[in-house]
Amino acid sequence: MLSSLFPLLFLSSAVLAASPQTLKLTARKGSFARHVRRVSPISEPLLDQFNGTDLQWFGNISFGTPPQTFGVVFDTGSFDSEVPGIQCGASCANQNKFDFSKSSTFVSLNRTGELDFATGGGVEPSDFESLQVLEVNDTMTLLGIATPDTTFFLITNQTAGFFNDPYDGIVGMGFQPNGGIFPSLRKAGLPAIFSMFLTPHTVGDAELTIGGVDESKLKGQTLTYAPILPPTDQTNFWQLASTNIIINSKDVQKSLFDGLPMVFDSGTSNIVMPTNLTNAMNALISPLIKPFGTLGAYGIPCSEIDSLPAEITFTFTDTNNKPFNLTIPSRELNVGPLNEDPNTCQTLINALDEGVGIIGGSLLKHYYSVWDVDQARMGFVSNGF
Protein backbone atom coordinates (compact mmCIF):
# COMPACT_ATOMS: atom_id res chain seq x y z
CA MET A 1 0.00 0.00 0.00
CA LEU A 2 1.24 3.42 -0.79
CA SER A 3 -0.15 4.70 2.44
CA SER A 4 1.93 5.02 5.56
CA LEU A 5 -1.11 5.00 7.81
CA PHE A 6 -3.67 2.58 6.43
CA PRO A 7 -2.74 -0.23 4.04
CA LEU A 8 -4.50 -1.16 0.85
CA LEU A 9 -6.68 -3.68 2.60
CA PHE A 10 -9.95 -2.81 0.97
CA LEU A 11 -9.79 -1.64 -2.63
CA SER A 12 -12.59 0.26 -4.26
CA SER A 13 -12.45 -0.41 -8.01
CA ALA A 14 -14.61 1.16 -10.67
CA VAL A 15 -14.26 -0.25 -14.20
CA LEU A 16 -14.77 2.30 -16.93
CA ALA A 17 -14.76 -0.07 -19.94
CA ALA A 18 -17.88 -0.56 -22.02
CA SER A 19 -18.47 -4.07 -20.71
CA PRO A 20 -18.68 -4.18 -16.90
CA GLN A 21 -15.96 -6.33 -15.38
CA THR A 22 -13.93 -6.50 -12.19
CA LEU A 23 -10.32 -5.37 -12.06
CA LYS A 24 -7.94 -8.19 -11.20
CA LEU A 25 -5.97 -7.31 -8.11
CA THR A 26 -3.49 -10.19 -8.08
CA ALA A 27 -0.57 -11.00 -10.34
CA ARG A 28 -0.97 -13.73 -12.95
CA LYS A 29 1.11 -16.84 -12.87
CA GLY A 30 3.82 -16.42 -15.46
CA SER A 31 5.61 -18.73 -17.87
CA PHE A 32 9.14 -19.61 -16.87
CA ALA A 33 12.36 -21.15 -18.17
CA ARG A 34 12.55 -24.95 -18.06
CA HIS A 35 15.94 -25.23 -16.40
CA VAL A 36 16.21 -24.47 -12.68
CA ARG A 37 19.47 -23.40 -11.13
CA ARG A 38 19.76 -23.02 -7.39
CA VAL A 39 21.05 -19.63 -6.25
CA SER A 40 21.68 -18.02 -2.89
CA PRO A 41 19.31 -15.51 -1.31
CA ILE A 42 19.64 -12.08 -2.92
CA SER A 43 19.51 -8.75 -1.07
CA GLU A 44 19.13 -5.10 -1.98
CA PRO A 45 19.30 -1.96 0.17
CA LEU A 46 16.13 -0.11 1.11
CA LEU A 47 15.90 3.65 1.52
CA ASP A 48 14.05 5.21 4.43
CA GLN A 49 11.53 7.94 3.91
CA PHE A 50 12.28 10.33 6.74
CA ASN A 51 9.70 13.09 6.67
CA GLY A 52 9.02 13.61 10.34
CA THR A 53 9.02 9.81 10.78
CA ASP A 54 11.19 6.84 9.91
CA LEU A 55 8.42 4.40 9.20
CA GLN A 56 8.42 3.86 5.42
CA TRP A 57 11.05 2.06 3.32
CA PHE A 58 11.40 1.65 -0.42
CA GLY A 59 13.71 -0.04 -2.95
CA ASN A 60 14.03 -0.77 -6.66
CA ILE A 61 12.12 -3.01 -9.04
CA SER A 62 11.88 -3.08 -12.84
CA PHE A 63 9.13 -3.61 -15.39
CA GLY A 64 9.32 -4.24 -19.12
CA THR A 65 11.82 -5.48 -21.70
CA PRO A 66 14.38 -3.98 -21.49
CA PRO A 67 13.77 -3.26 -17.78
CA GLN A 68 12.68 0.20 -16.61
CA THR A 69 13.47 0.78 -12.93
CA PHE A 70 11.25 2.32 -10.25
CA GLY A 71 11.47 3.01 -6.54
CA VAL A 72 8.62 1.21 -4.77
CA VAL A 73 7.31 0.39 -1.34
CA PHE A 74 7.37 -3.41 -0.90
CA ASP A 75 3.98 -3.65 0.72
CA THR A 76 3.02 -6.79 2.64
CA GLY A 77 -0.48 -5.36 3.13
CA SER A 78 -1.48 -5.51 -0.55
CA PHE A 79 -1.31 -7.90 -3.49
CA ASP A 80 -1.09 -5.72 -6.56
CA SER A 81 1.54 -3.39 -8.02
CA GLU A 82 1.23 0.15 -9.37
CA VAL A 83 3.78 2.48 -11.01
CA PRO A 84 3.22 5.73 -12.94
CA GLY A 85 2.80 5.53 -16.72
CA ILE A 86 3.70 8.15 -19.28
CA GLN A 87 -0.03 8.77 -19.52
CA CYS A 88 0.16 10.48 -16.10
CA GLY A 89 0.70 14.21 -16.43
CA ALA A 90 1.45 16.91 -13.88
CA SER A 91 0.21 14.84 -10.94
CA CYS A 92 3.11 12.40 -11.51
CA ALA A 93 5.71 15.07 -12.23
CA ASN A 94 7.90 13.99 -9.31
CA GLN A 95 7.91 10.27 -10.18
CA ASN A 96 9.56 8.08 -12.81
CA LYS A 97 7.13 6.94 -15.50
CA PHE A 98 6.84 3.64 -17.36
CA ASP A 99 7.08 4.12 -21.14
CA PHE A 100 5.09 1.24 -22.60
CA SER A 101 6.32 2.04 -26.12
CA LYS A 102 9.86 1.05 -25.12
CA SER A 103 8.93 -2.43 -23.88
CA SER A 104 8.79 -5.30 -26.38
CA THR A 105 6.74 -7.47 -24.00
CA PHE A 106 4.08 -4.92 -23.01
CA VAL A 107 0.39 -5.76 -23.37
CA SER A 108 -2.43 -3.42 -22.39
CA LEU A 109 -5.45 -5.21 -20.95
CA ASN A 110 -7.61 -2.16 -21.79
CA ARG A 111 -9.27 -2.00 -18.39
CA THR A 112 -9.25 1.16 -16.34
CA GLY A 113 -10.33 1.88 -12.79
CA GLU A 114 -9.73 3.66 -9.52
CA LEU A 115 -7.86 2.51 -6.40
CA ASP A 116 -8.71 4.28 -3.14
CA PHE A 117 -6.44 4.76 -0.12
CA ALA A 118 -7.02 6.14 3.37
CA THR A 119 -3.95 8.39 3.14
CA GLY A 120 -1.15 9.29 0.79
CA GLY A 121 2.43 8.65 1.80
CA GLY A 122 2.37 10.43 5.15
CA VAL A 123 1.44 9.34 8.63
CA GLU A 124 -1.36 11.82 9.21
CA PRO A 125 -4.90 10.84 8.15
CA SER A 126 -6.45 12.80 5.30
CA ASP A 127 -9.44 12.49 3.06
CA PHE A 128 -9.24 9.41 0.88
CA GLU A 129 -6.57 9.58 -1.80
CA SER A 130 -6.98 7.75 -5.09
CA LEU A 131 -5.16 6.53 -8.18
CA GLN A 132 -6.61 6.32 -11.67
CA VAL A 133 -5.08 3.21 -13.22
CA LEU A 134 -4.81 1.16 -16.41
CA GLU A 135 -4.42 -2.62 -16.07
CA VAL A 136 -1.48 -3.95 -18.09
CA ASN A 137 0.78 -6.98 -18.47
CA ASP A 138 4.57 -7.17 -18.77
CA THR A 139 7.69 -8.70 -17.23
CA MET A 140 8.55 -7.75 -13.64
CA THR A 141 12.17 -8.11 -12.49
CA LEU A 142 13.29 -8.01 -8.86
CA LEU A 143 16.97 -8.48 -8.02
CA GLY A 144 17.59 -10.30 -11.28
CA ILE A 145 14.60 -12.65 -10.89
CA ALA A 146 12.23 -12.07 -13.81
CA THR A 147 8.49 -12.81 -13.67
CA PRO A 148 7.08 -12.74 -17.22
CA ASP A 149 3.39 -12.15 -17.91
CA THR A 150 2.76 -10.17 -14.71
CA THR A 151 -0.39 -8.13 -14.36
CA PHE A 152 0.06 -4.72 -12.74
CA PHE A 153 -1.35 -1.19 -12.97
CA LEU A 154 -0.06 1.95 -14.64
CA ILE A 155 -1.03 5.10 -12.76
CA THR A 156 -2.64 7.57 -15.17
CA ASN A 157 -3.60 10.20 -12.56
CA GLN A 158 -3.27 10.58 -8.79
CA THR A 159 -4.53 12.88 -6.05
CA ALA A 160 -2.35 15.37 -4.21
CA GLY A 161 -1.46 13.08 -1.29
CA PHE A 162 1.01 11.23 -3.54
CA PHE A 163 2.69 14.23 -5.21
CA ASN A 164 5.77 14.51 -3.03
CA ASP A 165 6.49 10.87 -2.25
CA PRO A 166 10.17 10.03 -2.83
CA TYR A 167 9.19 6.67 -4.35
CA ASP A 168 7.24 5.93 -7.51
CA GLY A 169 4.74 3.25 -6.55
CA ILE A 170 3.90 0.00 -4.79
CA VAL A 171 4.70 -3.68 -5.18
CA GLY A 172 2.31 -5.96 -3.30
CA MET A 173 4.05 -8.61 -1.18
CA GLY A 174 0.90 -10.01 0.40
CA PHE A 175 0.59 -13.74 1.04
CA GLN A 176 -0.22 -15.19 -2.39
CA PRO A 177 1.44 -18.59 -2.98
CA ASN A 178 0.79 -18.62 -6.72
CA GLY A 179 1.16 -14.92 -7.52
CA GLY A 180 3.59 -12.04 -7.48
CA ILE A 181 7.30 -12.84 -7.48
CA PHE A 182 6.92 -16.10 -5.56
CA PRO A 183 6.49 -18.64 -8.40
CA SER A 184 9.57 -17.13 -10.07
CA LEU A 185 11.62 -17.67 -6.94
CA ARG A 186 10.77 -21.37 -7.00
CA LYS A 187 11.65 -21.64 -10.69
CA ALA A 188 15.03 -20.03 -9.91
CA GLY A 189 15.69 -22.71 -7.29
CA LEU A 190 14.90 -20.48 -4.34
CA PRO A 191 12.22 -20.94 -1.67
CA ALA A 192 9.29 -18.52 -1.75
CA ILE A 193 10.61 -16.51 1.19
CA PHE A 194 11.57 -12.88 1.66
CA SER A 195 13.05 -11.12 4.67
CA MET A 196 12.98 -7.50 5.77
CA PHE A 197 15.57 -5.63 7.79
CA LEU A 198 13.73 -2.38 8.52
CA THR A 199 15.69 0.10 10.60
CA PRO A 200 15.35 3.49 12.29
CA HIS A 201 16.72 6.30 10.13
CA THR A 202 19.53 6.80 12.64
CA VAL A 203 20.73 3.25 11.98
CA GLY A 204 20.23 2.92 8.22
CA ASP A 205 21.33 -0.06 6.09
CA ALA A 206 17.76 -1.36 5.73
CA GLU A 207 17.50 -4.33 3.40
CA LEU A 208 15.13 -6.60 1.48
CA THR A 209 16.24 -10.21 0.90
CA ILE A 210 14.40 -12.53 -1.49
CA GLY A 211 14.72 -16.30 -1.56
CA GLY A 212 15.80 -16.77 2.05
CA VAL A 213 17.33 -15.15 5.11
CA ASP A 214 20.37 -12.92 5.51
CA GLU A 215 22.01 -14.84 8.35
CA SER A 216 24.23 -11.87 9.25
CA LYS A 217 21.16 -10.01 10.48
CA LEU A 218 20.36 -12.67 13.09
CA LYS A 219 23.50 -11.93 15.13
CA GLY A 220 23.59 -15.49 16.47
CA GLN A 221 19.94 -15.46 17.55
CA THR A 222 17.34 -18.05 16.60
CA LEU A 223 14.27 -17.00 14.66
CA THR A 224 10.89 -17.51 16.29
CA TYR A 225 8.32 -18.67 13.74
CA ALA A 226 4.55 -18.40 14.00
CA PRO A 227 1.96 -19.91 11.61
CA ILE A 228 -0.17 -17.34 9.85
CA LEU A 229 -3.93 -17.67 10.04
CA PRO A 230 -5.28 -19.98 7.32
CA PRO A 231 -6.05 -18.30 4.01
CA THR A 232 -9.60 -18.12 2.78
CA ASP A 233 -8.54 -18.25 -0.89
CA GLN A 234 -5.36 -18.12 -2.95
CA THR A 235 -4.55 -14.78 -1.32
CA ASN A 236 -4.54 -13.78 2.30
CA PHE A 237 -2.92 -11.28 4.60
CA TRP A 238 0.13 -11.93 6.72
CA GLN A 239 -1.87 -12.18 9.91
CA LEU A 240 -1.47 -13.75 13.34
CA ALA A 241 -3.83 -14.13 16.29
CA SER A 242 -2.76 -12.26 19.42
CA THR A 243 -3.38 -13.95 22.77
CA ASN A 244 -2.57 -10.89 24.86
CA ILE A 245 -1.90 -7.17 24.55
CA ILE A 246 0.04 -5.49 27.34
CA ILE A 247 0.40 -1.73 27.81
CA ASN A 248 2.93 -0.61 30.41
CA SER A 249 2.69 -4.03 32.13
CA LYS A 250 -1.13 -3.90 32.23
CA ASP A 251 -3.28 -6.36 30.28
CA VAL A 252 -5.82 -5.00 27.82
CA GLN A 253 -9.28 -6.52 28.22
CA LYS A 254 -9.16 -9.68 26.08
CA SER A 255 -12.72 -9.44 24.83
CA LEU A 256 -11.67 -6.34 22.86
CA PHE A 257 -9.24 -8.28 20.64
CA ASP A 258 -10.16 -11.95 21.03
CA GLY A 259 -10.50 -13.38 17.50
CA LEU A 260 -9.19 -10.17 15.90
CA PRO A 261 -6.62 -10.94 13.16
CA MET A 262 -3.46 -8.85 13.46
CA VAL A 263 -2.22 -7.98 9.96
CA PHE A 264 1.51 -7.29 9.60
CA ASP A 265 1.83 -4.54 7.03
CA SER A 266 5.18 -3.12 5.94
CA GLY A 267 3.36 -0.35 4.07
CA THR A 268 1.67 1.02 7.19
CA SER A 269 3.61 3.30 9.53
CA ASN A 270 1.61 3.24 12.75
CA ILE A 271 -0.55 0.58 14.32
CA VAL A 272 -4.27 0.64 13.60
CA MET A 273 -6.96 -1.02 15.72
CA PRO A 274 -10.76 -0.97 15.99
CA THR A 275 -11.98 2.14 17.80
CA ASN A 276 -12.96 0.44 21.07
CA LEU A 277 -9.58 -1.30 21.29
CA THR A 278 -7.71 1.89 20.36
CA ASN A 279 -9.51 3.77 23.13
CA ALA A 280 -8.69 1.08 25.70
CA MET A 281 -5.02 0.97 24.71
CA ASN A 282 -4.68 4.75 24.75
CA ALA A 283 -6.37 4.94 28.16
CA LEU A 284 -3.59 2.77 29.61
CA ILE A 285 -1.02 5.24 28.28
CA SER A 286 -2.62 8.59 29.20
CA PRO A 287 -6.12 10.05 29.65
CA LEU A 288 -4.84 13.10 27.75
CA ILE A 289 -4.79 11.16 24.46
CA LYS A 290 -7.93 12.14 22.56
CA PRO A 291 -9.34 11.61 19.06
CA PHE A 292 -8.19 14.27 16.64
CA GLY A 293 -10.55 14.97 13.76
CA THR A 294 -12.73 12.31 12.20
CA LEU A 295 -10.21 10.11 10.35
CA GLY A 296 -8.87 7.88 13.10
CA ALA A 297 -5.97 9.96 14.42
CA TYR A 298 -5.37 10.60 18.11
CA GLY A 299 -3.29 13.32 19.70
CA ILE A 300 -1.90 14.74 22.91
CA PRO A 301 -0.19 18.07 23.74
CA CYS A 302 3.38 17.82 22.49
CA SER A 303 4.60 19.15 25.83
CA GLU A 304 3.27 15.97 27.50
CA ILE A 305 4.11 13.18 25.11
CA ASP A 306 7.83 12.52 25.42
CA SER A 307 7.68 11.85 29.16
CA LEU A 308 4.99 9.15 28.83
CA PRO A 309 5.76 5.44 29.21
CA ALA A 310 4.03 3.66 26.32
CA GLU A 311 5.49 0.18 25.93
CA ILE A 312 3.11 -1.95 23.86
CA THR A 313 3.55 -5.74 23.76
CA PHE A 314 1.63 -8.21 21.60
CA THR A 315 1.74 -11.90 22.56
CA PHE A 316 1.49 -14.55 19.85
CA THR A 317 1.90 -18.34 19.67
CA ASP A 318 4.83 -19.90 17.83
CA THR A 319 4.97 -23.09 15.74
CA ASN A 320 5.77 -25.08 18.91
CA ASN A 321 2.60 -23.74 20.56
CA LYS A 322 4.61 -21.53 22.92
CA PRO A 323 3.90 -17.84 23.56
CA PHE A 324 6.30 -15.15 22.42
CA ASN A 325 6.19 -11.36 22.60
CA LEU A 326 6.74 -8.56 20.10
CA THR A 327 7.21 -5.15 21.71
CA ILE A 328 6.98 -1.55 20.53
CA PRO A 329 9.10 0.71 22.79
CA SER A 330 7.78 3.92 24.34
CA ARG A 331 9.73 6.18 21.99
CA GLU A 332 7.45 5.19 19.11
CA LEU A 333 4.44 6.88 20.74
CA ASN A 334 5.23 10.31 19.27
CA VAL A 335 4.45 10.37 15.56
CA GLY A 336 5.06 14.12 15.32
CA PRO A 337 3.07 17.38 15.35
CA LEU A 338 -0.25 17.39 13.51
CA ASN A 339 -0.40 19.76 10.55
CA GLU A 340 -3.65 21.31 11.76
CA ASP A 341 -2.28 21.97 15.26
CA PRO A 342 1.52 21.98 15.72
CA ASN A 343 1.05 22.00 19.49
CA THR A 344 -0.67 18.62 19.33
CA CYS A 345 1.38 15.51 18.56
CA GLN A 346 -0.16 12.52 16.84
CA THR A 347 0.09 9.31 18.84
CA LEU A 348 0.97 5.86 17.57
CA ILE A 349 -2.37 4.00 17.72
CA ASN A 350 -5.02 4.93 15.16
CA ALA A 351 -8.61 3.77 14.80
CA LEU A 352 -10.20 1.95 11.86
CA ASP A 353 -13.23 -0.31 12.17
CA GLU A 354 -12.63 -2.92 9.46
CA GLY A 355 -12.46 -6.14 11.47
CA VAL A 356 -8.68 -6.42 11.71
CA GLY A 357 -5.80 -4.90 13.63
CA ILE A 358 -2.83 -3.59 11.63
CA ILE A 359 0.76 -3.65 12.86
CA GLY A 360 3.14 -1.55 10.81
CA GLY A 361 6.63 -0.13 10.69
CA SER A 362 6.64 1.09 14.28
CA LEU A 363 7.03 -2.56 15.34
CA LEU A 364 8.71 -4.07 12.27
CA LYS A 365 11.75 -1.79 12.50
CA HIS A 366 12.60 -3.39 15.86
CA TYR A 367 12.67 -6.95 14.47
CA TYR A 368 14.26 -8.78 11.59
CA SER A 369 11.23 -10.36 9.92
CA VAL A 370 10.95 -13.42 7.66
CA TRP A 371 7.91 -13.92 5.43
CA ASP A 372 7.72 -17.58 4.42
CA VAL A 373 5.13 -18.26 1.72
CA ASP A 374 5.91 -21.95 1.27
CA GLN A 375 5.38 -22.81 4.94
CA ALA A 376 2.72 -20.12 5.64
CA ARG A 377 4.61 -18.67 8.57
CA MET A 378 6.36 -15.54 9.81
CA GLY A 379 9.66 -15.38 11.67
CA PHE A 380 11.01 -12.77 14.04
CA VAL A 381 14.21 -11.96 15.88
CA SER A 382 15.03 -8.76 17.74
CA ASN A 383 17.37 -6.44 15.90
CA GLY A 384 18.36 -4.63 19.10
CA PHE A 385 17.23 -1.16 18.06
From TrEMBL:
InterPro entries on file: Aspartic_peptidase_A1, Pepsin-like_dom, PEPTIDASE_A1, Peptidase_aspartic_dom_sf
Residues of the Peptidase A1 domain: 57-381
Swiss-Prot/TrEMBL keywords: Disulfide bond, Signal
GO molecular function per UniProt: aspartic-type endopeptidase activity
Keyword Signal: yes
GO biological process terms, semicolon-separated: proteolysis
Name of the protein in its database record: Peptidase A1 domain-containing protein
Pfam hit, one: Asp
Record: active site: 75, 265
Keyword Transmembrane: no
Source domain of life: Eukaryota
Annotated family: Belongs to the peptidase A1 family.
Signal peptide stretch: 1-17
Cystine bridges: 302-345
